[in-house]
Amino acid sequence: MKNPPTSNQSKAFGFGTQIRKSPYFDATVRWGAAGFSVYNHMYIPRDFGDPEQNFWNLVNGATLSDVAVERQVEITGPDAATFVQMLTPRNLSTCAVGQCKYVLITNADGGILNDPILLRLAEDHFWLSLADSDILLWAQGVAVNSGLDVTICEPDVSPLQLQGPKSGEIMQRLFGDQINDLRYYWLGEFELDGIPLIISRTGWSSELGYEIYLRDGARGDELWELIMAAGQPFGLQPGHTSAIRRIEGGMLSYHADMDRHTNPFELGLDRLVDLEMEADFIGKAALKKIADQGISRKQVGLEIDGDALTAANNEFWPILIAEKQVGQVTSAIYSPRLKLNIALAMVMVEHSALGTDAEIVTPFGRRSVRVVDRPFYDPKKSLASKV
């Protein structure tokens, strides 16, 4: 096995006890993590060197990423299915045991509080694999006066993401042919050297990939090294979630592309809202009203003229037409594959037509933009869903 890179960088990180470390923290530092940010009250590696190289590692081979920050809200009990349906406008009546669903959690105003992956482990056992917001507290609060028999907690579960076109071969090396039976957006129970795992064909990359949910935090370091060792013949690299690839794929980032002031219709996610189902859910009345009245703003894709952006935006850039602000850029990046600056943006509906020209105001000056289709690459998700 190739020895991991060594690093003394952890001495300079200045970590505090109020923010948790993942079970893979020490392993990621050994393998070259040079920078972290905070997500769901945990440290997440954000820097393994050149982000463009990280992108190419992902789309040409495979990367292993510590995404233990995707904390799980576990919902169990006789009324678990009824309670989970109350949290989301997506109709879950056909969600089978072993299936995963992308869902939205909405508040009473129809605003989005989170956009997790729902995993159904048993008839009365669910996980919500979270984006960055405190849905554990929301769910526990909702349960108090719901009259439903449920137990809600955060289990000892920490996911890794193995993503990229070589990820299937690496998983076959680890788990044998049985892994080939795992379908897109389905999950299964597995063990690796006695380490208990749930594995799903999901991920935040728009590439073929797997999320590997560790169910024993004491074995995180061991699991990381086992996967890296199996992946060496296939060129597996440690990495982080790629902003380039997720924006190419039109994948949304909570707090950037949506928040509690954003409703599903503004994002074009009508398919995740069933206003006709018999079951009630939080925000149903508000979303019915929005559906009747229509929306005033809409998410679009943008192409941005000018030199390549050197990094993703870390603030919202105003969008101007005739010097009037008509929206804002929420996520922007340079795609080396498309050789374009691309962005997701929220604009007033009357300025959302394809081909609309505008300007944006950035810290490095104004740039011309035009409204284009999104996602920017592989719109049918053929890469992620291929067998």
Q: The biggest beta sheet, please?
A: 6 strands, mixed
- Per DSSP, the total helix count is 9
The CATH superfamily of the largest domain is: Probable tRNA modification gtpase trme, domain 1
Alpha-carbon distance between the termini?
29 Å
Structural class: alpha+beta
Strand order of the largest sheet: 12-13-14-11-3-15
What percent of residues adopt helix (DSSP H or I)?
10-25%
Radius of gyration: 21 Å
Name the CATH class of the largest domain.
Answer: Alpha Beta
Task: Count the beta strands.
Answer: 21
Under CATH, the topology of the largest domain can be stated as: Gyrase A, domain 2
Q: What's the overall geometry?
A: globular
**Fraction of residues in β-strands:** 25-35%
Residue stretches low in confidence (pLDDT < 50, at least 5 long) are none
Helix and strand succession?
Answer: HEEHEEHEEEEEHEEHEEEHEHHEEEEEEH
Note the main attributes of this structure:
Gyrase A, domain 2; 19% helix; 21 strands; six-stranded antiparallel β-barrel; Alpha-Beta Plaits; Elongation Factor Tu (Ef-tu), domain 3; alpha+beta
Structure description:
With 387 residues, this protein is α+β, with helices and mostly antiparallel strands. The chain folds into three domains: 14-71 and 156-246, Gyrase A, domain 2 (2-Layer Sandwich); 72-153, Alpha-Beta Plaits, CATH 3.30.70.1400; 296-375, Aminomethyltransferase beta-barrel domains (Elongation Factor Tu (Ef-tu), domain 3, Beta Barrel). The protein is built from nine helices and 21 strands. It has helices at residues 25-30, 51-60, 80-87, 135-144, 167-175, 220-231, 243-248, 284-293, 382-385, and strands at residues 35-39, 42-47, 63-66, 72-76, 100-102, 105-106, 112-114, 117-122, 125-129, 151-153, 158-163, 187-192, 195-200, 209-214, 237-239, 297-304, 317-321, 324-335, 340-348, 357-362, 365-372. The strands form five sheets. A six-stranded mixed beta sheet has the order 12-13-14-11-3-15. Strands 16-19-18-17-20-21 form a six-stranded antiparallel beta barrel. A five-stranded antiparallel beta sheet has the order 5-8-9-4-10, covered by helices on one side. A hairpin with a 2-residue loop joins strand 8 (117-122) and strand 9 (125-129). Helix 5 crosses helix 6 (220-231). The longest helix has 12 residues, at 220-231. The chain is globular and about 65 Å long. The model has no long low-confidence stretch (mean pLDDT 95).
